Amino acid sequence: MSDDGKIPLSLQAQEEKKSVMGWAAVVLGILGIPFSAVFTVIGLICSVIALFIGQIGSGILGILLALVGIITSPLLLGLIGAGALATWLN
Length: 90
Known about the structure:
Layout: H1 9-32, H2 37-52, H3 56-71, H4 74-89
């Protein structure tokens, strides 16, 4: 820190980069719930990266949202429904 109490510009840019990964994890986890498993997988990767760079809260939230997105994925639900239909018809 400098003598006047201001944070140097390089540290400010570093903090902004850190927060982007956490926000990306949360947003991709939310988008993955109604749309597809692709968003949730990318969100899960961003969540793990967010955990490693020190954003514990958004990293854990991103992991939880990604897991909910994977469980409620329309593709996964369709495959389960197709399997149930095949079993019922056979």
